[in-house]
Design goal:
Elements: H1 2-15, E1 25-29, H2 45-49, H3 52-57, E2 62-65, E3 69-70, E4 82-86, H4 93-106, E5 109-114, H5 124-130, E6 142-143, E7 146-147, E8 154-155, E9 169-172, E10 177-180, H6 195-210, E11 215-218, H7 266-286, E12 292-295, H8 301-306, E13 318-319, H9 323-326, H10 334-347, E14 357-359, H11 368-371, H12 376-385, E15 389-393, H13 413-416, H14 423-426, H15 464-469, H16 474-484, H17 488-491, E16 494-500, E17 505-511, E18 517-523, E19 529-531, H18 533-536, E20 543-549, E21 560-562, E22 566-568, E23 573-578
Parallel strand pairs: 1-2, 1-15, 2-5, 5-11, 11-12, 12-13, 14-15
Antiparallel strand pairs: 3-4, 6-10, 7-8, 9-10, 16-17, 17-18, 18-23, 19-22, 20-21, 20-23
Helix pairs in contact: 6-7, 12-16
Bound molecules: alpha-D-glucopyranose and magnesium ion.
């Protein structure tokens, strides 16, 4: 029976070849910080275009760019002023078209960040909405608010809070109403209950698809819909207190409430399914490769899984899996990691065209190398060798670290809204510093000494050029990983995981019948261990060859070692292949 099932799987596998994004490798660029071509200290599109070969070199299939549309930059592009214009600091439409053209030549797909939940308050739509000009008058979530019977003063319609702290309602003097903003005051929420908004946003997607983009990363998806206003009073219900009040005592903090009326509303999933249909229709009409959707939703696992689709309709190709950012940390054991991984696999729909995905870092979280001291290689190893799609944030391949930025120089709106005593916990600036290309001025990011955020102080010791030249470096490990990842055992093989040595080590075998057998050994702990790989996997031979190993490890790539006395040192990860 088992044999039959296995044969069937391979038969199906060989009938439908993998689509380009399936099991793909993705890279996130923060455009302000990647490469500055014109010396203004701010990254730009021509800078990105000049580095396209680098994406190939590090094995990327697709690159997603954080927002590049015109913006006052209150939230560095996540406040869109015009969905059809390129932000002037980043270049022109011509530069963008050139980027797409060159990316096609090089063979890298470009994916844009689409921010549907809110615009900037400088958007023409919002200005017209303030003035009540149709059809924009109903493009945003406006409300009269409540008049306090004692003071006779206006108060917000509900207790809703912004993700960036304080009330999510802002009074507008001209319109004499409150508007909803689930993020900064300068980011008014669009009204998705207005069909014109839905239609307009679809036009935006088509506009960029026509320019040749390969898909979208969709921002802040769970926030798109709010509960409908009460049909009689026009009011909104208050959200209840967080069920674990001790975890969030400050009544201004977003976590103070349970967001049952402002997040994860059922209409949200339908909207994503509609956008998937739009992408598929575009492919039918215009040909070309599959255009994909990646969705950003920090929500419960069952909710994230709904973004994949509902059985009848498809949704996001890559509903970002943030579990390895949010549910584990530097103190987590191999077992903790394995449990999170298993949870995701258990939750995934049983469908051969649905892929797991793993995200280890992004522009909203602290740097991987700082979260996992001495274990950046090990974490990249996990990312690149698990089945499914891998997503890498720029700089993680060379183990860039957080750069501390003091209160006075902090520019991230989330940190600026936080308490000065706690701002660093909230600040996203430390993970957004310029990319470290080489040891020259401003790390080769810019010819300008003044960059929009300071370059990390370690850049002369840690940069791409040095790591490219060094025989042993994070970048070399990364390159070996992306190469071995293409082997059939990693692309199509099974993945049998075990936690051994008192929860210190995660060990797994990647194997496809008829291909090489690989074993990944990750020691998350600070204990040096000697293991017998055959205890976990008896079919592995006595000798294994090191494919790649953490730079602090005892072995060298290419070395053939004894599998029965394998040196699994503290904080070290290794990929080996069974030697026949
Ligand atoms: C998403 C983005 C984040 C931004 C927020 C508001 O979470 O990743 O950077 O601040 O949405 O658009
Ligand atoms: Mg520039």
């Amino acid at each position: 029976m088992k044999v039959f099932v296995v044969l069937l799987v391979f038969a199906i596998g060989s009938v439908c070849a993998k689509d380009w994004w399936e099991g793909g490798n993705f890279y996130q660029i923060y455009p302000r910080s990647f490469k500055d071509s014109d010396g203004d200290g701010i990254g730009d599109l021509n800078g990105i275009a000049s580095k396209l070969e680098y994406f190939k070199e590090i094995g990327m299939d697709g690159v997603w760019l954080s927002p590049i549309f015109k913006s006052p930059m209150v939230d560095f592009g996540y406040d869109t002023q015009d969905y059809r214009e390129i932000h002037p600091e980043y270049g022109t439409m011509e530069d963008f078209e050139n980027l797409i053209k060159r990316a096609k030549e090089v063979g890298v797909k470009i994916i844009l960040d689409f921010v549907p939940n809110h615009t900037s308050d400088e958007s023409e739509w919002f200005k017209k909405s303030i003035d009540g000009i149709p059809p924009y008058d109903d493009f945003y979530v406006w409300n009269d608010g409540i008049t306090n019977p004692i003071t006779n003063k206006k108060e917000p319609p509900s207790n809703w809070l912004s993700a960036f702290r304080y009330s999510a309602w802002q009074w507008n003097d001209v319109r004499q109403q409150y508007y909803l903003h689930q993020f900064a005051i300068q980011q008014p929420d669009l009204n998705y209950r207005n069909p014109l908004v839905v239609k307009e946003m679809k036009e935006v997607l088509k506009f960029w698809l026509a320019k040749g983009v390969s898909g979208f990363r969709i921002d802040a998806v769970p926030f798109m819909f709010e509960i409908e206003a009460d049909p009689i009073t026009g009011g909104y219900p208050n959200e209840p207190r967080n069920p674990t009040p001790e975890s969030c005592p400050d009544s201004n903090d977003h976590c103070y409430l349970q967001h049952i009326y402002t997040q994860d509303q059922p209409e949200t999933y339908d909207m994503v399914y509609q956008w998937r249909e739009l992408c598929e229709q575009f492919k039918k009409d215009h040909g070309g490769d599959t255009r994909i959707l990646m969705t950003e939703a920090y929500t419960s696992l069952p909710n994230i899984i709904r973004y994949y689709g509902n059985g009848q309709r498809n949704g996001s190709h890559i509903p970002f899996n943030f579990d390895l950012i949010t549910k584990v940390n530097g103190a987590s054991t191999a077992k903790d990691f394995n449990d999170r991984i298993q949870e995701w696999f258990d939750a995934m729909p049983n469908d051969s065209r649905i892929y797991a995905n793993w995200v280890m870092g992004n522009h909203d979280n602290k740097r991987l190398a700082s979260r996992y001291k001495n274990r950046a290689d090990l974490i990249n190893m996990l990312l690149q060798t698990l089945p499914g799609v891998a997503v890498t944030y720029y700089g993680e391949e060379i183990a860039m670290e957080n750069q501390y930025i003091d209160w006075e120089h902090t520019v991230d709106t989330q940190a600026c809204n936080a308490d000065p005593a706690k701002f660093d916990d909230y600040s996203r600036d430390p993970a957004r510093t310029p990319f470290q290309w080489d040891s020259s001025t401003s790390s080769g990011f810019s010819t300008n000494q003044d960059t929009w955020l300071p370059v990390h102080e370690n850049y002369k010791k840690n940069n791409v050029l040095l790591q490219k030249r060094a025989p042993i470096s994070h970048l070399q490990v990364f390159k070996k990983l992306v190469k071995v990842r293409h082997e059939p055992s990693f692309q199509e093989g099974t993945c049998i995981r075990k936690v051994i040595q008192n929860d210190d080590i995660l060990i797994y075998k990647r194997e496809k019948a008829g291909s090489d057998k690989y074993v990944v050994i990750l020691n998350f702990s600070s204990n040096n261990r000697t293991i017998n790989i055959q205890d976990s996997f008896p079919t592995i031979s006595n000798k294994v060859e090191i494919i790649t190993t953490s730079i602090n490890g005892p072995y060298t790539d290419g070395e053939v070692v004894d599998a029965t006395k394998f040196n699994a040192q503290a904080n070290v990860g290794t990929v080996v292949v069974s030697v026949n």
